[in-house]
Specification:
The protein is mainly beta and 142 residues long. The chain has a single domain, classed as Immunoglobulin-like (Sandwich). Strand 4 and strand 5 form a beta hairpin. It is rod-shaped.
Length: 142
């Protein structure tokens, strides 16, 4: 499984294009999307990807698999409230779309991938394919 995210630091073309961009250094914002922060863990029988999606509701999360590419997408909508007796001076909470993709490669059981969402954390479990055990056989000498 190649868990280097698509569009990551190791994507050298994007790295050189975006190296001097101030947004690149201060945030995980890429284009029109925020890239959620993730933890990737390899266990004996599966890979786990945990994505941080603060302020996102379960129904606004989408996990898709297309030709071996796992994509996590979510949207956090801006809460527009009338402010009475003051104005917002600084707003650091993020609103908008989150998107992150991973190339799963060929060593996972794609049909058995499962996702759970709890307390703003999306956890995707991708079971590993059992490694093929080389078969030893005796060849008759004639």
């Amino acid at each position: 499984m190649s868990l280097i995210p698509r569009g990551s630091f190791y994507d050298m073309d994007k790295f050189f294009d975006d190296f001097w961009s101030p947004m690149r250094r201060e945030s995980t914002f890429t284009g029109d999307f925020f890239a959620p922060r993730v933890d990737v863990k390899e266990l004996d029988n599966q890979y786990q990807i945990s994505a941080e999606l603060p302020g996102v509701k379960k129904e606004d999360v989408s996990v898709t698999l297309d030709e071996g590419i796992l994509t996590i997408e979510a949207e956090c909508k801006d809460e527009t409230k009338e402010e009475k007796g003051g104005k917002i001076i600084r707003q650091e909470r993020r609103y908008g779309k989150y998107s992150r993709s991973f190339n799963l490669g060929g060593d996972v059981k794609e049909k058995d991938i499962k996702a759970t969402f709890k307390d703003g954390i999306l956890t995707v479990s991708a079971p590993k394919v059992a490694p093929a055990v080389p078969e030893q056989r005796r060849i008759e000498v004639k």
